[in-house]
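## Example record

The block below lists the input lines for one assembly entry, exactly as stored, with component labels intact.
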Amino acid sequence: MARKVGSTGAETAQRVREAALELFARSGYAAVSMRAIAAEIGVQAGAIYNHFPTKQDLLKELLTGHMETLIAAWRAVEQPDLKPPQALEAFVRFHIRYHLDRSREVFISYMELRNLEDENFGQIEQLRRDYERIPWTILENGSADGSFDIIDPQVTTMAMIAMLTGMTTWYRDSGRLSLDEIEAIYIRLVARMVRGRKRSL
Amino acid sequence: MARKVGSTGAETAQRVREAALELFARSGYAAVSMRAIAAEIGVQAGAIYNHFPTKQDLLKELLTGHMETLIAAWRAVEQPDLKPPQALEAFVRFHIRYHLDRSREVFISYMELRNLEDENFGQIEQLRRDYERIPWTILENGSADGSFDIIDPQVTTMAMIAMLTGMTTWYRDSGRLSLDEIEAIYIRLVARMVRGRKRSL
Amino acid sequence: MARKVGSTGAETAQRVREAALELFARSGYAAVSMRAIAAEIGVQAGAIYNHFPTKQDLLKELLTGHMETLIAAWRAVEQPDLKPPQALEAFVRFHIRYHLDRSREVFISYMELRNLEDENFGQIEQLRRDYERIPWTILENGSADGSFDIIDPQVTTMAMIAMLTGMTTWYRDSGRLSLDEIEAIYIRLVARMVRGRKRSL
Amino acid sequence: MARKVGSTGAETAQRVREAALELFARSGYAAVSMRAIAAEIGVQAGAIYNHFPTKQDLLKELLTGHMETLIAAWRAVEQPDLKPPQALEAFVRFHIRYHLDRSREVFISYMELRNLEDENFGQIEQLRRDYERIPWTILENGSADGSFDIIDPQVTTMAMIAMLTGMTTWYRDSGRLSLDEIEAIYIRLVARMVRGRKRSL
DNA sequence: AATGAATGAGGGTTCATTCAT
DNA sequence: TATGAATGAACCCTCATTCAT
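Predicted structure tokens for the full assembly:
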């Protein structure tokens, strides 16, 4: 059969991405079949191959897309002139909000790395290191100019990212605390980790 | 063919557990076949079914086994008379050491929960909540007796666990810092989160 | 590989049906593998699943197809105005000829009922009862109008059907008697069972 | 483990036979596993092999056992001096009663012949022909001495056996007619087939 | 005589992928 | 661009059978 009226290639590709994202996040890459993705958007499995050469490419595109968008999103909001305390707070806010809005992308970014073939894996790892360098640089700067008292910038960076990202696994809209409240708590926790004071962070 | 000379059921079951643990951690539950597990220990796939009724049961046993052993291990080392600062330090040391020794178990405990069927999932979730109550109780106690100044016990608990557990994803024996050094850093970071002082924590 | 040039789904489905019929009749449902059916028609086992969702569905379709075709075939040849003796003779001729032409369908209809799951089983049972009602009605009519002297219409119906159908298990083209001769004998036997006379049956 | 207290080889073999008979009749030879038979009598599958060399041998023994017992049972009750009409009535009574009591054996005798390997198959076929010769001889004798008016002894024999045996597929203890009543009806039907009269059969 | 652990083969079914249409 | 039919490999699991114990 020919293309459905009104559908375009770009549209279909986008719907495939969205369906794959949802299903990979819910069940895991290995447990999701191309047929399941296709069924989710009402096409046959074969149709996906007009847009993505293999299932692996689909995963890779989701992961690189996420990392690139993440970094680009930070570049869009970052204010290079901020002092380290303010820069750190901005980063924490950004990270929490961004990751909560993309919890599926975050989840598969951590979970499905091992399902990437070597070359693709290396590419994502590099992007991740690029992103981790953002808070690490802020911590280094704050350490250098005396605004922070940091035990170890690298360990603190990793600890902080793990702490912040972990929120996506337990945060619920209907929970005891609002997102604003949780965000405020996390900002204070980070401040303590770098021995800042809330007012001065 | 019949049983190999000298083999016993308990031994084989244990070797299956170990191989499955390793492979699930490396590639993920869905991506590991029963044949692959069997090959790892030099038997045919069918032999596994003498010891585990299904692949799902094998996963479930690994996960419940891990959580139960984890909790039991804490019970074995905990000193109920410790003041909160000392109790918290003991918990941090325990958690880091235990999780680093069992990074594979930790990894699949977080990764493969979604591959558990509903009933099994609920069982594990309960065990996890049981474990999380341990540091949460310490924080509550320390908050009550004034040894800690905690922003929010629940959020702090989750943040702390995420931070500590995250170490398993990046720690390497050959890294810049020794385990002792990293442990010391994490203890100080936790101390800051509860606004203790290192000397008094 | 993709579809072979010139192949269509309907064709393949029909070839699967024919191969399954032959093999089920020869070896029994449980003893025939999907791979064996596929090999018979020169495709891979997986291809069958494009046309039948499960092996059980394939069996069910053969059995319901047979019963429905059987009943439809009778409806096509029956002459409602015939007197009971002529109607009974017409039915006997029909049953013998039809069942001999479809000895494989007949065989699996009797043999493989137990391999049907409950719902499918019930459906076939109903169709069978529908068919049995045909001769039973003729006997009842002939009993009512005095053309037959029947001991018990229900038992006679079952006895007659068993007797006629049994022929498919021993009839051979190369046997002592031709089909016409056997048919004539069976008509006379039935006539005796209802105490008709050959000339008046 | 050693033998259970009180069990003997002969006992176990008999329990295997009984369990296999029941399960083969219910589900068919190919669909019943050695494990299922073993479970039915509370032993492990391996134990069966102390009593029967293969699954095929088990089936063969059931079938030959049935046919031999059937023929021996007839030999035990037959009265060689009876006139054909009385002999035929005696045979009908015997066949109905015997087959109804052994409906499972009868069923698998007809169903599972095809699951026998060639040599075993031939053996059973011979026994069946031996049994069929019993009514056939009675009909021949009655034909010869004028007590019967038979259309064709061979076809009549097959028709009669099919008719009588078919009863096992629909008879229910709780049905409309008692076994005695059904038996009486069948005797009259057979009498009509050989053109005897009830009183003279 | 029975268990329990194992084999090697094969079961039904699903899968990623291909390609004629 | 999409379908639908096909492949060939793989999957989980079960099987008949064997044999050390």
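Chain C has a mean pLDDT of 92. Chains C and B do not touch (no CB pair under 8 Å).
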